[in-house]
Amino acid sequence: MSKKNELIQSVKGTRDLLPGETPLWQRVEEEARRVFEAYNFREIRTPILEQTALFARSVGSDTDIVTKEMYTFEDRDSESLTLRPEATASVVRAYIEHGLYNEGGVHKLYYFGPMFRRERPQKGRYRQFYQIGAEVLGSDHPTIDTEVLEMLVLLLERLGLKEFKLLLNSVGCPKCRPEYLKKLRHALDAVKTKLCTDCQRRAQTNPLRVLDCKVEADQPVIEKLPYILDHLCSECRQHFECVTGELDERGVAYEIVPRLVRGLDYYTRTTFEITSGLLGAQNAMLGGGRYDGLSEMLGGPPAPGFGFAIGQDRLVLTVEESAALKMKAPLAVYVAWMGEAAREPAVRLACQLRREGISTEISFQQMKLKKSLGIANKLQARHTIIIGEEEVASGHYQLKDMETGEQRAVDAVQLVAAIKEKLGETFQSGRAPSSQAK
RNA sequence: GUGAGCGUAGCUCAGCUGGUAGAGCGCCAGACUGUGGAUCUGGACGUCGCGGGUUCGAACCCCGUCGCUCACCCCA
After folding, report:
1. How far is CA A197 from CA A217, A226, A392, in A?
2. Which among A30, A15, A45, A21 is positioned nearest to A437, based on CA atoms?
3. Which of A136, A142, A132, A163 is CA-nearest to residue A286?
4. CA distance A411 to A429
5. What angle do CA A309, A314, A315 make, to 5 degrees?
6. Half-sphere exposure of A335 (CA within 13 A, CB side)
7. Stated in angstroms, how far is A372 CA from B28 C1'?
């Protein structure tokens, strides 16, 4: 039990996004929406809470996520529930549950939202973290893979990112992978003793991960291990060649990394990751791939899928680091009033401005003009409207441009129009231009 | 779950070999009865993370604990 008066702080691995940083988050979300919708994706919102079995069956009951990272608890009726660790399973669940496949064609869906994984927090990794993801359900055509990758690269470019790499691999399918794994295990048995202790353990638990080892001394050994790319069945090989061929056609740069491994069980064929050097140890900014058997695993009809998840926390970090976006949240108008006679006209004017969508601040108590201007300055207001006894009497208010310091008397009746004109088209909303609808 | 580093004012940090706290920024007020951003002057704000130990005396040394950060594992 916590002591009285003890400070209560946010749960470990969760954090508050303060107004200083939310503009950047909004910017990223707006750009994602715009790009996704340009590719004809539509938003889906699924619950944060799901039955535990959903993740056990899709992500894989032996994966780290399921065995030790999920927030799982018993509901009052002793049903086991879990805070979603990822969203692909939920999207596929919804697709099946509502029979979207009956509509025919492919479904292109995107989502935003928080995910939960109980790991030790570090840079770019949180227990509540945010993903922006998209899924295409209903076809295994390689062009889908390509189109989605093209879309992702466009999004990153739109956000001003330069330092990123698209890493590509194929992990085969249930037809070719088991055989490959057998070969890999066999090869590992022969060289195991030359590897680091971590890899010796991985050779048992998850042989694919050995390929991903970063220990310098292990590299010569790892390079001689068989890669799955050389052991794909003909269908998987053809699919992969199609994807890379079309990426070339579209001018999307990529790097084939035969050692790229994903941690979720449901992946088949194409897998990929986009990394950024600006991120520290957790350099995977987003990842995804194809999951052709997932729908069946969840009791649905055959419905091949391809998707990705962007780590929004990490994306925001790189956008910050690359300093491509300077966010300002300028206020359009500050209304300064002095004297009781000015109060009502000032309040009425502020209301009018706000109804026009012009961001406006007004003090709720009377103060010296000097003080008001100080506040207007701190809020970075573009304009200050000064209303005192004289202004009320004459019906002309002082309109001051805070940047230039210029000031003139404007007829109160024409004030809103005058401000609109001064703000110009880009600032109709009174906020930065990023809020323009698509 | 494992390891390392760090917890001093709202923020960034200083504080020599132990003598009960300082700077810059920010904040508030004034110089300037209705004109901001500069300058100057003054002011408020600290259980030195918490608990225990050593000591005449602890922000400083020791032990424990909590928190944060980074890394491992794994992933977004």
Report:
1. 12, 20, 81
2. A30
3. A132
4. 23
5. 75
6. 29
7. 15
According to the model, what pLDDT value does residue A6 have?
Answer: 67
Delimit the domains of chain A by residue range: 9-176+232-321, 333-430
The Å distance, CA of A93 to C1' of B49, is 46
Task: Give residue A97's Cα distance to chain centre.
Answer: 26
A274 has which bridge partners? Answer: A166, A286
Mean pLDDT of A191-206: 78
What six digits make up the tokens of A181?
Answer: 């794994």
Interatomic separation, CA of residue A14 and C1' of nucleotide B10, rounded (Å): 22
Residue A179 sits at the vertex; the CA angle it makes with A258 and A184, to the nearest 5 degrees, is: 50
A212 CA → B76 C1’, Å? 17
Q: ipTM for the complex? A: 0.87
Which pair of structure tokens corresponds to residue A281? 């140890």
Nucleotide nearest to A123 (CA to C1'): B70
Q: Taking the C1' atom of B37, which residue's CA lies nearest?
A: A377
Report chain A's terminal Cα–Cα distance, integer Å: 51
**Span A223-264, pLDDT tens digits:** 888 989 999 999 999 999 999 999 999 999 999 998 888 878
Sequence length of chain A is 438
CATH of A9-176+232-321, one of 3.30.930.10, 1.10.540.10, 3.40.50.1220, 3.40.50.10240: 3.30.930.10
Q: Provide the sign of the torsion angle of the four alpha carbons A107, A248, A283, A263, taken in this order.
A: positive
Contact between A268 and A292 (Cβ < 8 Å): yes
Tokens of A114: 């928080």
**Separation CA A268–CA A173 (nearest Å):** 5
Hey, which CATH number is domain A333-430, 3.40.50.720, 1.10.10.10, 3.40.50.800, 3.30.70.260? 3.40.50.800
Chain B, protein-covered positions (CB within 7 A):
1-3, 27, 29-30, 32-37, 47, 67-76
User: What does pLDDT average to over chain A?
Assistant: 89
SS (H, E, C) A191-219: HHHHCCHHHHHHHHHCHHHHCCCCCHHHH
Question: Quick one: tokens of A415?
Answer: 């004030």
